Task: inverse folding
C-alpha cells in the first residue's frame, strides 16, 4: 500500500554504491597479517520514497555494508569503490558530517547505546527536543517509565523501538536499518516494518538490512539478495510473492524454497568463507546449473525488470 | 570496467603492524624498568656518597643529572631511589593483589553476606580520601619502610577487588558456564577451564596497573614526610629536599628525578593498557 | 503414579508459577505441560510473554516458585549430565570465546565423525576460534554438543531466529532427523508460526501467564 508514492518526484537515487569492496587486515597465526575481502564489487542504489531490503545470510557482510555507508568501519578495514549521496561524491568527511542528521542509523543491538545514560535523555540527544522525543515514544508504545530506564533494563522489543525512535529524532533523508526485527514478535515486527513504510512514503530512502526475507518482502519495494559479500540479484518485491519462477538467481530461488511457509527445503552446502572464495560466481559450488562458464567474471545484468549476477538466468 | 579508488582508509600505511609494535614496546619498557630496578638494587652505598668538593654541580659530563648540596650524584641517587620505590611497590602490589583476589572471588562465589561484607569494606576504603588513609596507616605503624609498605599494600586492593568480583560474577552467569554445569561438569572443572582463563588476564593487567599507583603513593607520603626517613635515597625524599633549592636556581635537583619517576609510572601504565588490549579477544585484530 | 497414568518417561511441568521479583507481576501462573519422547511441542506467543522463562524452567536453569519439573516422575538432577539440554538463541554467547571449537564441541561428549557430517560441520572449523565463525556455523556446534546419547529432551529457545532461511532449514532438517532417530522430546520456542507448523507435532501458545493449544503442526 502506498508503494512508490515518491514516483512524482524525479527518480534520482539518494544513495548509489558502485563496485564497493571492503577488506580487513586480520591476524592469523602469531604476528602474521592477512587481507580478507568481505565485500566484493557490490553495487546498489536507493531512491527517495523507496525501501530497499538487503536480504542475505548471517555472516555475508550485510552489517559491514551498513558500517561502510556510515563510515564507521573499524581501523583495520580498507575500502574501494565509489559512493554517491544525492548525486555527490560521498567521502569519510561527508559521512561524518551527515551521520546522525540526514543519514540515520538503526543499529543491530542496544550495545550501541550509552549504558550509563537514561533512555529519554539519550534519544533526545544534542539536537532533538523533549516534545519530539515524547511524541515518538508515544507513537512506538513506549511509556513515560521507559524514558527513565537505562539500556540494560529494556526488553529486546523495547530496545529496538528505542533505537528506531532515536534514529527518527532528526529529519532523516536516508535511513540505514541493520536487522531491526529479530527479538520482536510477529506483530511488533510488522509494526516496525510498517513504520519504515511510512517513513519511505514521506520521502525517505530506507535501506533495510535483514535476514528476515519473508517480512522484508512485505514492506520493501525492491529486494537486493546478498550472498557471500555481494549482491547477486535485485528484484521488485512482487517477484518474491509471485513465486520462485519470477526470481532470477538460483540463490534467490533457494531462499524461496527454504522458507518454512513454502518447501522448507534447504540447498546443501554453506556460504564460502571470505578467505577462500571461488573464482567467478560465488554460488557455483551449490548450484545445480553450474557450467564451465561460471568460473569467469560474472557482471550484473538487467533481466525482467531487475538485475542479476548469473549467466544462466533467463 | 572503470575502477575508481577513493575513500580509502589508509590504516595499513604503518609498515609494522600493531601487534608487533605492541610487543616491541612491551619488551623495551620491561627492559628499561627492570634495568633500573636491578641497577638500583645492587648499587653500593658509596656510589652516591657525600663529596663536598662537588657540591651543587649543574648537569654535565661528570654528573649527568648534576649533584646535590652534599655533592652526591643525582643520577645514581635517583636510580637507587626509584629502585627502592619499586621494591616497596612490588611488595605492596603483591600483598594488595592477593587480598583483592581472595576478597573478590569470595564475594562472587559465596555471595550473600560475604558479598555484602566485602562490598562494605571496599566502599569504606574508597570512601576515605586515599592519601589520608595512607598517612594514617603509615603513621600508626611508625612510618619508615614498614609503615609505608603496609599503608600502600592495605589501600590498593579495593579497585582490583571490584574488578575481580565483577569478572567472576559475569563469567559465572554466562550461558557457556551454565551450559557446562548442565553437561555434567564439576565446579572444579568449570573453575579451572572457564573461570580462571577468563579472570586471569584481567587480574594480571590489574596488578600491573597497580604498580604505578603504588610507586606514586609511596613517593607522595615520603615527600610529605610520613614515609621513608630522610636518610634513605627514596625518590620522595629527593623531591622534598629539592624543594628547598629550587628557589635558588638548582632546577636539576627536582627536574631529573621527577622525570624519571613520571617515566617509570607512565611506562607501567602503558604496559598494563597494552596487555589489556592484547588479551581482549574482541579487538585482537585491530 | 507414573505407571498408573501410563505416561512414564516424559518431561513434565506441574502447576508452575514464576516471577522474577516479589513485587513484579506473575510471568507464569499455574502452567502445566508434558513433553513425551518423540514429541515436538511448539511454544509461541508475543515477546515478553514468558516463553523463554518456561523454557529455562523446563531445562532446569531457573527454579519455579511454585510447582515442579519432573523427568520420568522425579526431579531434574542437580549434578551430572542433565538429560534435558537447552539450545540458545545466540550461539556466540553460549560458547567460551577463549576456547577453540574442538574443545567446545567435546565438552559434554565426543561426537563421532558421522554426526559432524550430518550437522554440516567442516573439519577445518574445529581449529578455529568462535569469533572466526558465523552465527549459523556456531549454532551447528551448539546443537551437536548436546546431541549425545545421554540427552533425552531438547529445549530449543528461538534457535534459528538469528539465522538466514537456508541455514534455518538446513539446521532444522538435521535436528528433526536426529531427534526422530534418538526419539528426543523437544520443546520448540519460536515466534515464527510457519516454522512451528513445519517443525512441531503440536503447538501451544502462552497468553496471560497460561497455555492454550493451537491447531496445527505435523504428525510425528
Result:
Amino acid at each position: 500500500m502506498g508503494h512508490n508514492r515518491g514516483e512524482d518526484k524525479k527518480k534520482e537515487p539518494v544513495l548509489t554504491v558502485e563496485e564497493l569492496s571492503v577488506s580487513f587486515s586480520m591476524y592469523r597465526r602469531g604476528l602474521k597479517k592477512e587481507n580478507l575481502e568481505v565485500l566484493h564489487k557490490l553495487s546498489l542504489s536507493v531512491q527517495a520514497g523507496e525501501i530497499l531490503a538487503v536480504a542475505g545470510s548471517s555472516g555475508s557482510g550485510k552489517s559491514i555494508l551498513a558500517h561502510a555507508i556510515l563510515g564507521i568501519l573499524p581501523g583495520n578495514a580498507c575500502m574501494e569503490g565509489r559512493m554517491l549521496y544525492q548525486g555527490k561524491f560521498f567521502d569519510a568527511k561527508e559521512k561524518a558530517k551527515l551521520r546522525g542528521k540526514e543519514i540515520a542509523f538503526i543499529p543491530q543491538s542496544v550495545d550501541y547505546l550509552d549504558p550509563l545514560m537514561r533512555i529519554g535523555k539519550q534519544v533526545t540527544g544534542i539536537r532533538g527536543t523533549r516534545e519530539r522525543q515524547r511524541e515518538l515514544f508515544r507513537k512506538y508504545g513506549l511509556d513515560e517509565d521507559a524514558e527513565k530506564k537505562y539500556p540494560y533494563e529494556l526488553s529486546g522489543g523495547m530496545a529496538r523501538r528505542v533505537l528506531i525512535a532515536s534514529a527518527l529524532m532528526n529529519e532523516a533523508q536516508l535511513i540505514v536499518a541493520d536487522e531491526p526485527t529479530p527479538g520482536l514478535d510477529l506483530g511488533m515486527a510488522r509494526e516496525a516494518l510498517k513504520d519504515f513504510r511510512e517513513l519511505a512514503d514521506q520521502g525517505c530512502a530506507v535501506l533495510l538490512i535483514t535476514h528476515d526475507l519473508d517480512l522484508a518482502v512485505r514492506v520493501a519495494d525492491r529486494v537486493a539478495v546478498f550472498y557471500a559479500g555481494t549482491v547477486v540479484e535485485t528484484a521488485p518485491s512482487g517477484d518474491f510473492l509471485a513465486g520462485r519462477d519470477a526470481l532470477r538467481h538460483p540463490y534467490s530461488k533457494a531462499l524461496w524454497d527454504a522458507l518454512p511457509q513454502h518447501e522448507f527445503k534447504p540447498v546443501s552446502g554453506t556460504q564460502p568463507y571470505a578467505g577462500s572464495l571461488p573464482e567467478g560466481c560465488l554460488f557455483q559450488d551449490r548450484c545445480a546449473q553450474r557450467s564451465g562458464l561460471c568460473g569467469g567474471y560474472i557482471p550484473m545484468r538487467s533481466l525482467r525488470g531487475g538485475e542479476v549476477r548469473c549467466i544462466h538466468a533467463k | 570496467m572503470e575502477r575508481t579508488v577513493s575513500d580509502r582508509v589508509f590504516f595499513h600505511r604503518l609498515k609494522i603492524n600493531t601487534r608487533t609494535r605492541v610487543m616491541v614496546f612491551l619488551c623495551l619498557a620491561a627492559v628499561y624498568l627492570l634495568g633500573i630496578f636491578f641497577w638500583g638494587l645492587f648499587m653500593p652505598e658509596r656510589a652516591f656518597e657525600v663529596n663536598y668538593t662537588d657540591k651543587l654541580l649543574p648537569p654535565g659530563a661528570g654528573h649527568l643529572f648534576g649533584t646535590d648540596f652534599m655533592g652526591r650524584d643525582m643520577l645514581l641517587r635517583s636510580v637507587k631511589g626509584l629502585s627502592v620505590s619499586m621494591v616497596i611497590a612490588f611488595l605492596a602490589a603483591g600483598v594488595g593483589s592477593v587480598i583483592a583476589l581472595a576478597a573478590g572471588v569470595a564475594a562472587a562465589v559465596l555471595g550473600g553476606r560475604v558479598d555484602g561484607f566485602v562490598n562494605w569494606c571496599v566502599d569504606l576504603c574508597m570512601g576515605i580520601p586515599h592519601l589520608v588513609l595512607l598517612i594514617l596507616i603509615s603513621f600508626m605503624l611508625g612510618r619508615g619502610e614498614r609503615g609505608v609498605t603496609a599503608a600502600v599494600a592495605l589501600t590498593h586492593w579495593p579497585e582490583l577487588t571490584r574488578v575481580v568480583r565483577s569478572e567472576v560474577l559475569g563469567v559465572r552467569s554466562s550461558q557457556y558456564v551454565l551450559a557446562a554445569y548442565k553437561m555434567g561438569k564439576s565446579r572444579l572443572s568449570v573453575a579451572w577451564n572457564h573461570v580462571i582463563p577468563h579472570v586471569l588476564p584481567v587480574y594480571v593487567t590489574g596488578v600491573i596497573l597497580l604498580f604505578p599507583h603504588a610507586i606514586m603513593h609511596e613517593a607522595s607520603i615520603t615527600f610529605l614526610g610520613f614515609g621513608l626517613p630522610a636518610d634513605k635515597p627514596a625518590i620522595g625524599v629527593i623531591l622534598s629536599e629539592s624543594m628547598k633549592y629550587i628557589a635558588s636556581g638548582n632546577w636539576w635537583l627536582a627536574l631529573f628525578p621527577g622525570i624519571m619517576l613520571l617515566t617509570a609510572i607512565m611506562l607501567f601504565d602503558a604496559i598494563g593498557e597494552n596487555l589489556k588490549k592484547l588479551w581482549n579477544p574482541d579487538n585482537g585484530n585491530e | 503414579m507414573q505407571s498408573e497414568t501410563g505416561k512414564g518417561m516424559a518431561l513434565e511441568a506441574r502447576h508452575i508459577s514464576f516471577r522474577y521479583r516479589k513485587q513484579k507481576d506473575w510471568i507464569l501462573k499455574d502452567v502445566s505441560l508434558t513433553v513425551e519422547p518423540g514429541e515436538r511441542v511448539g511454544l509461541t506467543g508475543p515477546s515478553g510473554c514468558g516463553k523463554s522463562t518456561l523454557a529455562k524452567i523446563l531445562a532446569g536453569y531457573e527454579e519455579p516458585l511454585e510447582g515442579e519439573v519432573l523427568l520420568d516422575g522425579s526431579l531434574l538432577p542437580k549434578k551430572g549430565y542433565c538429560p534435558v539440554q537447552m539450545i540458545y538463541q545466540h550461539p556466540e554467547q553460549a560458547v567460551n570465546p577463549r576456547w577453540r571449537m574442538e574443545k567446545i564441541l567435546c565438552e559434554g561428549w565426543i561426537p563421532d565423525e558421522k554426526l559432524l557430517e550430518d550437522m554440516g560441520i567442516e573439519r577445518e572449523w574445529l581449529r578455529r576460534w568462535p569469533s572466526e565463525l558465523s552465527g549459523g556455523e556456531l549454532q551447528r556446534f551448539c546443537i551437536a554438543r548436546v546431541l549425545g546419547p545421554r540427552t533425552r529432551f531438547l529445549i530449543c529457545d528461538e534457535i534459528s531466529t538469528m539465522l538466514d532461511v537456508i541455514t534455518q532449514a538446513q539446521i532444522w532438517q538435521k535436528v528433526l532427523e536426529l531427534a526422530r532417530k534418538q526419539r528426543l522430546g523437544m520443546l520448540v520456542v519460536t515466534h515464527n508460526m510457519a516454522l512451528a507448523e513445519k517443525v512441531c507435532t503440536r503447538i501451544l501458545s502462552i497468553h496471560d501467564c497460561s497455555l492454550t493449544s493451537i491447531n496445527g503442526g505435523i504428525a510425528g
Summary: The mean pLDDT of chain B is 82. The interface with chain A takes residues 1, 3-9, 11-12, 17, 19-20, 23, 284-286 of chain B (CB under 8 Å). Residues 74-110 of chain B form the longest helix (37 residues).
